[in-house]
Amino acid sequence: MDGPTAQNIVNMSSEVILVTGGAGFVGSHTVLELLNANWSVVVIDNLVNAAKGGSKPASLERVEKLTGKKVEFHEANLLDRSALTRVFKLYTIHTVIHFAALKAVGESVEKPLEYYKNNINGTTTLLEVMREKGVKSLIFSSSATVYGCPKYLPVDEKHPTGVAITNPYGRTKYFVEEILKDLCAAEKDWSVTLLRYFNPVGAHESGDIGEDPNGPPNNLMPYVSQVAVGRRPQLQVFGGDYDTPDGTGVRDYLHVVDLARGHLAALPKVSIPGCHIYNLGTGSGYSVLQVIDAFQRASRQKIKYQVVARRPGDVASLYADCSLAERELGWRAQLSLDDMCASAWRWQQKNKYGFSPPPDGGADH
Ligand code: UD1
């Protein structure tokens, strides 16, 4: 038998990874990978954007089935300091992976205060409780949105941030990054890793967990898969006149399982104090029409679409330079656009209405 690995040494200790927002799309896939790597996992989620199951959110019940392991779950809002403190008293926490946030771009324009309060005050409350309890390792779910309109491509981590961000959601990610940088500059015993995600899509290969947006999807891939499965009549392609090879927007789509594994690759960094920043993407850009094409191949369904006006706030092209993550974390995306489409389609076919039962009368929600 092989000797103990770094992962199962950790498992023999009683330390846990605390995952905020662990019932959501990226969160649930990360919890699954953590469990598979023998970590003990505790999730805090307020279920604002995740389906309730029995005693746990539906996504986490599925994760338990897929891994054969248990997840500890606490329904709590990060703004509720006493609830957070109670959870922190129950465990010895190795690292916090912080996903919990509101994330609908359009809604953030209509409800900026709600977004600033949830995403920023929620984070500062979490940080205060962490400090009180002596937990000073954090991995933060940031976004390529902090780069605003890119000055050069591919975008690396040195690219300026905070300029020309077009919505409050994006600004909350930028502001939290700045708060975390200031904290690391002032208090040298913190270790914070900012992971800037490009466009996470796809689903676990089982098709049992995946992206389950509330109402009409804002993002491309879930919209395409809902058209493919017959929940929506057609896709609107926002803009056909960009300065890109086929005129449609180009993005760096990243398989959610690769992204989840990026968090595990970042875990060793938490023993090094300071603020570490990594892009997580594939480094390749695909246009909207290329995504439609790949999805049609994967699903063998015709995706009806119509090219309409540009969506305000969109940029023509955005894709990542991910060489730093490869050099320093030994992480590199492994899965292709075809894998992303095939897994998204498997999830959508098996779960036409996501984690929810079909709506009454068959009308969509
Ligand atoms: C969007 C958000 C970004 C957020 C990210 C989360 C905006 C302006 N940006 O990024 O802040 O971090 O999601 O994943 O909303 N498209 C269509 N039809 C659709 C939907 C999208 O043509 O129904 C196009 C878009 O114009 C874009 C591409 O598909 O060219 C990708 O869009 P989307 O999935 O919304 O991601 P981003 O805009 O990159």
CATH class: Alpha Beta
Secondary-structure element series: HEHEHEHEHHEHEEHEEEHEEHEEHH
Distance between the termini: 52 Å
Q: Please, how many domains?
A: 1
Strand order of the largest sheet: 3-2-1-4-5-6-11
Bound molecules: uridine-diphosphate-N-acetylglucosamine
Class per helix and strand makeup: alpha/beta
Secondary structure tally, helices: 12
Helix content: 25-40%
> CATH superfamily, please?
NAD(P)-binding Rossmann-like Domain
CATH topology name, in short, is: Rossmann fold
In the predicted model, the low-confidence regions spanning at least 5 consecutive residues are: 1-12
Structural summary, described in words:
The protein has 365 residues and is of the alpha/beta class. The chain has a single domain (16-350), classed as NAD(P)-binding Rossmann-like Domain (Rossmann fold). It contains 12 helices and 14 strands. It has helices at residues 6-12, 25-36, 58-67, 81-90, 105-110, 112-132, 168-186, 220-228, 256-266, 288-299, 323-329, 337-350, and strands at residues 15-20, 40-45, 72-75, 92-98, 137-143, 191-197, 199-201, 235-238, 250-251, 253-255, 274-280, 286-287, 305-308, 317-318. The protein has a 7-stranded parallel sheet, with helices on both faces. A 3-stranded mixed sheet has the order 12-9-14. Helix 3 (58-67) links the parallel strand 2 and strand 3 (72-75). Helix 2 (25-36) crosses helix 9 (256-266), helix 4 runs parallel beside helix 6 (112-132) and helix 10 crosses helix 12. The longest helix has 21 residues, at 112-132. The protein is globular, with a radius of gyration of 20 Å. Uridine-diphosphate-N-acetylglucosamine is lined by residues 105, 143, 145, 169-170, 199, 218-220, 223, 235-238, 249, 251, 288, 311, 313-314.
